[in-house]
Design brief:
Length: 455
């Protein structure tokens, strides 16, 4: 333990690990961007890349100014939301946070900022190719303030009402994945399907190579996402990282097999990568509460449940472009329930001190029968909160022309790369000149149709 120049006592090893973990979680942002750009259509690749990184950047400003204070204030007794005592990070260098007592509060804020900023970037994939850029950023900022920050406080702050119920969410199954997955579904439903959407049509993915690279970066970053949630360099963090890796490996293999058997596909990279992400989303809430090998169970069950959730969402004709709700929403919710079953005291009491061990809980394996109902209450309440406020925000923004979320039909046809970004992925088939030809052709068709109607 070291006493800093500001008078607080910190642990240099813990500080180093959380600093590294913050950088690892940041790597997930370009990973997510590449993953989404590769899965989507070629004409929207650059717009997807830009939307993810811009959403991330804008939300970091919101978090720095007031998001952290709303989510992690330790100077209020409220059950639902923090105050603004730490506005603009004031005072955080001179103290620690109760959730991370061995590192500076500023570092804890920076680490949690990565979670807060990647959460809205997740739902960008649900409406890729049909949601305008600037309204997306405005929606993300409002969503972070009204949806994410309160849920974060409920689950992770000492005074949060779900925290007081002993809900178990180690690294964001409900806080990150259920909130963003639910919002993704509401966005996809309320904005409507793509102009060319059918339940039988297979869209050509822009680049399986991008998906592969994105998955590698996400997987790598998840070691900091889950492993760093110990906010200390200890055995608990090792446990979380190991369980996460096993869940990803199992999920990828299981999804690839399902894709081959059920969908009659070959052993595709996209199938493996999607399953790996589903496994990682599922293990997130339980990674620091279960034995490492239990990650295999999370990976297997997440692959099956998320795979059939994708098919169900298509069956009900909701055009979730990149399957965000089915993978992240369902994966996170499933992980919450599994944690209520599989968590054990020998893990939950690890590296938390005497007081922490006395307050620790476990799951059905250790005969804590009320834990699954608590987990279900958390999932249902977070889901309802996210869905209700997302719908309200969509209706509100769509009531004004300058904040309307959906792009025009013409912009959707020619692609948002050329319509909004003015740049494209420089592949021969997707060159800007080809986009302009497509745009001109679309305009000619629309003009001809207009003249015909007048006649």
């Amino acid at each position: 333990m070291n006493k800093t120049g500001t008078g607080i006592i910190t642990n240099s090893g813990d500080t180093s690990w959380v600093l590294i973990s913050s950088a690892l979680v940041f790597v997930m942002v370009p990973g997510l961007a590449f993953f989404y750009a590769g899965l989507g259509e070629s004409k929207n690749a650059m717009s997807t890349l830009v939307a993810v990184i811009l959403t991330f950047a804008a939300t970091t400003l919101q978090w720095t100014l007031f998001g952290f204070s709303l989510a992690f204030s330790d100077t209020t007794d409220s059950l639902f939301l923090g105050n603004l005592d730490y506005f603009a990070q004031l005072g955080t260098m001179r103290k620690t946070n109760p959730e991370a007592p061995t590192i500076p509060a500023t570092l804890f804020s920076m680490y949690q900022m990565m979670f807060a900023a990647i959460a809205p970037a997740l739902f960008v994939g649900a409406t890729a190719g049909r949601m305008k850029l600037i309204p997306t950023i405005i929606f993300s900022l409002l969503w972070s303030t009204i949806v994410y920050d309160p849920v974060d406080y409920w689950v992770w702050s000492d005074c949060g009402w779900l925290h007081k119920l002993n809900v178990m969410d180690y690294a964001g199954g409900s806080v990150v994945h259920v909130t963003s997955g639910t919002t993704a579904f509401i966005l996809a439903y309320m904005l409507g399907p793509r102009l060319t959407y059918t339940t039988t049509k297979e869209y050509e993915n822009h680049s399986p190579v991008y998906v592969y690279i994105g998955t590698a970066l996400l997987w790598f970053g998840w070691f900091g996402f889950n492993g760093g949630s110990s906010v200390a360099a200890n055995s608990r963090g090792v446990n979380a990282a190991f369980a996460s890796h096993l869940a990803a490996s199992t999920g990828g293999i299981a999804w690839m097999v399902l894709d081959s058997v059920v969908n009659r596909k070959k052993y595709t990279a996209i199938g493996f990568c999607t399953g790996a992400i589903a496994g990682l989303a599922c293990i997130t809430p339980g990674s620091g509460f279960v034995q490492p090998a239990v990650g295999i169970i999370y990976g297997l069950l997440s692959a099956v449940c998320c795979f059939y959730s994708v098919r169900f969402v298509k069956w009900i004709r909701v055009d979730d472009t990149l399957d965000v709700a089915a993978v992240h929403g369902v994966g996170g919710a499933l992980g919450m329930v599994l944690t209520g079953i599989l968590a054990q005291y020998q893990v939950t009491r690890l590296d938390v001190g005497e007081s922490g061990a006395a307050a620790a809980t476990a799951g059905w394996l250790d005969e804590v029968w009320w834990q699954v109902p608590v987990q279900l209450v958390a999932v249902i309440c977070v889901c309802l909160w996210s869905a209700a406020w997302s719908a309200i925000l969509i209706l509100l923004m769509n009531s004004f022309a300058f904040t309307s979320l959906r792009c025009t039909a013409e912009e959707e046809r020619c692609g948002l790369d050329i319509a909004e970004i003015g740049e494209s992925d420089h592949r021969q088939a997707d060159s800007p000149s080809n986009y302009r030809q497509l745009e001109n052709k679309t305009q000619e068709i629309d003009t001809a149709a207009l003249l015909a109607n007048k006649v």
